[in-house]
Design a protein that fits this description.
Helix content is about 85%, strand content about 0%. Helix 1 crosses helix 3 and helix 2 packs antiparallel against helix 3. The protein has 3 helices and no strands. It has one domain.
Length: about 70
Amino acid sequence: MLHQLSTYVCSSASSNLATLTTHAAHVKELWQDMVALGLHDPELWDTVDLAWEIVLGALNLAAAQR
């Protein structure tokens, strides 16, 4: 399932590394905001972790196409 989601994100970004890097930066910024706010919701953290894995997978797929 993770690979399918990464493939979808990569395709949606037209395999553009700059676009995918921007997506990764947004996930990182969300993570930083959650830390700063002291959020302790495990489901929210799991969701951010999943988003990070999907975006990294998409970046790897796009990089492999180069």
